[in-house]
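Form 7-S
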Amino acid sequence: MDIIVCVKRVPQTAEAEVKVDSSGKDIIRDRLTFDMNESDTYALEEAILLKEKFGGAITVISLGSVEAEDTLRIAMAKGADNAIRIKAEDFGELDGYKTAQLLGSVIKDIKHDIILTGCLATDDYYAQVGVALAELIGIPHATLVTKIDIVDSKAHAYRELEGGLLEHLEINLPALLTIQTGINEPRYASLIAIRRAAKKEIKTVGKADIAGGEIMQHSTLEELFTPPVGKRAEILTGSMDEIATKLTDIIKGKGLL
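Output:
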């Protein structure tokens, strides 16, 4: 089974103070640490589990700066066979659609049975790239997948829906699945595997290597800003009639009625 996994290097911001830089379009990154996007680590682990069960090869692809090669090497240390970095520095500002186009322009020339991505990236939370990529290269897809079974060249994908519901889909391969966190337990790379991966070649693809149509962007980042701090909740007390009256007054006061 030939598997492609798309991964992204992202800043770890959960416990860090994030500030917008002077351009107003990016964050100050000097004191932030970077790592593989969380749901991408689960996608990679799922790919490794499929490889261990069915054989084949895993190719990891990242659209990023040269620092993203560290992330790709960790992926190879864990079990990926090949790595490709698309040189983000060649393509200027990126949105979800443009990212999907660039990934698709490389993936279309690589033999694959299944493509795995994380369900979303923790730096932008677009959750667009996986589904856009599948549509651009013309294969079926499923999102927020929590379990995968491969039977007779079909993927049985179990995915999360709203309200705690689950959905079971039978999808013909090749297909693309965006992986939800918690689907497995990602492994750690051993020190010796990291040392071996440091010597492996990473293929780079730049603007001159991208062929087959214009790469377009459909959105422009205008501004980043910290959400204003204000009152987050108001607890209404009293009888049901009193609460209903108070709620109606609040809605009217905000001009919604």
